[in-house]
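Practice problem 4.
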């Protein structure tokens, strides 16, 4: 692949600058004979938009996945047979900066060792009636600066329509005044085909003007605005984006700006050419926003919100008789999807970074809702590229250098061990374990090196617990994850047909040490919801101790008047810690408390995605509190895999008295229940062909068959 192609770029005379316009590169060529087949292999860094004969090659956007570019670089493959013709043809590529040439704030990526000018490598493999030929990127390509005078990831774009090059992707357009491309340095990483789910514009949302020059698209999204404008030549339209408003109705970007060093963030500008209605939308970045403030001089204007993320198929659904829960489910879905743009991110506005802990916590919910394993497998390759030789991981992945010694720790590193395992658990596909097995074993050596008498204490813990809470010590959550890692590795060794006895022995040692140091009779010495829920959820409480352990957690919840008093780790544990032992009704009350901290508090205050903080003081679009949505599926509807994959399913619903009916589905499996007059409950389960199952209601277990099943309990 690319044996005869070269990395090429515009000629640059200096190190990448802040405001360099996006270059266009093109190649005119002639075909002799009818076209039989044409395959394009192309990598454009940091991003590319590709045309052949005036037509875009793909409707996918942001086509080059983010990666550690000096370790691994992805190229795309397109069948472009229908775009070529006998005679004269042209391929034209506009290049953007992306994360490869990070030109604005965030010193972590701005100073990345890989950072360089936009560049590309491409080959067209062409079969015609008169034989085969190949067009490769080389110095015969022509290049010119285009109308996109600025583009920066998270920053925005400035587009000067007066500088447009008419029909730059038309073979008949002369390029005598264009410069020749030059050979560029390779980014350094191996070239690998991008086989992962593409990013697409998946929805278009209409806007409403809600104040002076402020538009509301009604939903917190990842994406950009598409504008339709009429005005005079040279007039400038400025679009500023935000996810919240101040009390006076103006945009509030204070929270986003705390990660901004040079003042240009989530801001687009369009300069009119003055030729009737002009339509424009960005290409090489995206914003996180709900609101858009528009300024400038124009005669007519309207705006749409364009939603983009990796276009994963939705395979799950949930609804019930409580609209608050339905809105929490919808908010979780939006938060999960809008935080997956090439990699799973923490938020689509402030950082757009791949924080590992967020995904370690939310991946089960995501696997129930979406066919998302393909996206996780790509991200796990980024783990390979950043893991140190001693097994250590950073807190954000990919990273050029930062977050190895702050921002990580076992609860965050858990993504490496648990995501491959959860993919297998929810899909039956063990390829992610196979892909990451050596990295998982290497990490186990690292965490063992960090243990003191099997107790681990480093990195982040129960992040963003409510203010004033009795925070859970990191040693508790870390050591519990150490135990879970050893136990999971034991199972994965069996899956990989390797000897897991060493991991099994290690897990028993850690469990014994944890219990001796932190617990007495199932009761945690540290009195907090997170600590107590951690011991129950992570399997560190003996069966005979469970009533006391669960009773203590109920007591700790009642001390907070039924409110959750956990950060993101405790919020992972507490749902199952109580619901697995018959207290889903208590969890329901916890979730629906109208006042802070609670999920309902967010919904009651107009949130359309999950928040980063219980008090809504920071990001309003995070997915790390998404365990509540897994609770909807796993406990309220009761859908769960019997072991690995959903070839056999267990339906174990919780008939909480606060609900009249619940309905959910996952990959063709559906489960619903509703209350009948007289107090009975009707349960209906539908299983696809080849899927068997069991219905668990109280102490009764009923075998389920493929097709429709109906029972009265």
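Answer key:
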């Amino acid at each position: 692949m690319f044996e005869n192609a070269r990395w090429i770029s515009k000629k640059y005379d200096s190190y990448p600058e802040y405001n360099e316009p996006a270059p266009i590169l093109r190649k005119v060529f002639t075909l002799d004979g009818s076209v039989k087949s044409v395959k394009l292999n192309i990598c454009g860094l940091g991003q590319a938009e590709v045309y052949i004969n005036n037509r875009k090659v793909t409707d996918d956007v942001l086509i080059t996945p983010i990666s550690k570019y000096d370790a691994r670089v992805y190229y795309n493959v397109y069948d472009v047979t229908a775009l070529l013709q006998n005679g004269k043809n042209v391929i034209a590529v506009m290049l953007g900066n992306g994360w490869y040439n990070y030109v604005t704030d965030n010193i972590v990526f701005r100073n990345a060792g890989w950072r360089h000018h936009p560049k590309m490598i491409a080959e067209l493999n062409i079969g015609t009636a008169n034989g085969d030929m190949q067009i490769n990127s080389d110095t015969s390509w022509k290049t010119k600066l285009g109308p996109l005078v600025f583009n920066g990831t998270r920053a925005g774009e400035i587009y000067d329509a007066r500088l447009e090059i008419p029909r730059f992707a038309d073979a008949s357009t002369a390029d005598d005044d264009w410069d020749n491309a030059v050979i560029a340095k390779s980014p350094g990483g191996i070239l690998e085909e991008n086989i992962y789910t593409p990013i697409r514009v998946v929805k278009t949302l209409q806007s409403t003007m809600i104040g002076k020059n402020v538009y509301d698209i009604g939903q917190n999204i990842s994406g950009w605005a598409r504008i339709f404008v009429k005005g005079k030549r040279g007039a400038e339209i400025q679009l500023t984006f935000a996810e919240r408003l101040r009390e006076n109705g103006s945009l509030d970007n204070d929270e986003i700006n705390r990660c901004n060093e040079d003042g240009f963030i989530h801001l687009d500008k369009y300069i009119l050419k003055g030729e009737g209605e002009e339509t424009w939308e960005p290409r090489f970045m995206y914003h996180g926003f709900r609101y858009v403030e528009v300024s400038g001089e124009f005669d007519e204007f309207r705006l749409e919100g364009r939603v983009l993320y990796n276009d994963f198929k939705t395979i799950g659904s949930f609804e019930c008789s409580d609209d608050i829960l339905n809105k929490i489910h919808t908010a979780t879905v939006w938060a999960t999807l809008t935080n997956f743009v090439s990699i799973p991110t923490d938020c689509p506005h402030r950082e757009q970074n791949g924080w590992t802990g967020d995904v370690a916590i939310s991946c089960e919910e995501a696997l129930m809702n979406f066919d998302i394993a393909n996206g996780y497998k790509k991200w796990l390759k980024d783990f390979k590229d950043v893991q140190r030789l001693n097994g250590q991981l950073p807190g954000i992945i990919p990273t050029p250098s930062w977050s190895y010694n702050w921002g990580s720790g076992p609860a965050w590193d858990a993504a490496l061990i648990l995501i491959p395992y959860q993919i297998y658990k929810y899909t039956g596909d063990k390829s992610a374990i196979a892909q990451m097995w050596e990295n998982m074993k290497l990490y186990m050596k690292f965490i063992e090196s960090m243990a003191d008498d099997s107790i681990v204490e480093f990195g982040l813990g129960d992040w963003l617990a409510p203010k004033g809470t009795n925070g859970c010590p990191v040693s508790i959550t870390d050591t519990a994850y150490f135990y879970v890692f050893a136990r999971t590795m034991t199972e994965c060794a069996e899956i990989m047909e390797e000897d897991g006895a060493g991991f099994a022995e290690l897990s028993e040692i850690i469990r014994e040490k944890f219990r001796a140091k932190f617990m007495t009779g199932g009761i945690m010495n540290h009195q907090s919801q997170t600590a107590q829920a951690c011991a129950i959820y992570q399997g560190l409480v003996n069966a005979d101790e469970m009533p006391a352990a669960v009773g203590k957690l109920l007591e700790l919840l009642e001390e907070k008047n039924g409110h959750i008093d956990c950060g993101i780790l405790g919020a992972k544990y507490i749902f199952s810690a109580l619901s697995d032992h018959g207290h889903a009704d208590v969890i329901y009350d916890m979730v629906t408390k109208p006042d802070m901290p609670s999920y309902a508090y967010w919904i009651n205050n107009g949130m359309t995605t999950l928040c980063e903080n219980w008090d809504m003081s920071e990001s309003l679009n995070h997915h790390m509190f998404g365990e509540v949505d897994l609770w909807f599926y796993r406990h309220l509807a009761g859908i769960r895999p019997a072991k690995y994959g959903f070839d056999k399913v267990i339906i174990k619903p919780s008939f909480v008295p606060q609900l009249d009916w619940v309905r959910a589905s996952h990959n063709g499996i559906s489960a619903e229940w509703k209350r009948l007059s007289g107090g009975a409950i009707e349960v209906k389960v539908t299983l696809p062909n080849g899927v068997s199952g069991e219905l668990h209601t109280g102490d009764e277990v009923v075998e389920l068959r493929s097709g429709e099943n109906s029972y009265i309990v």
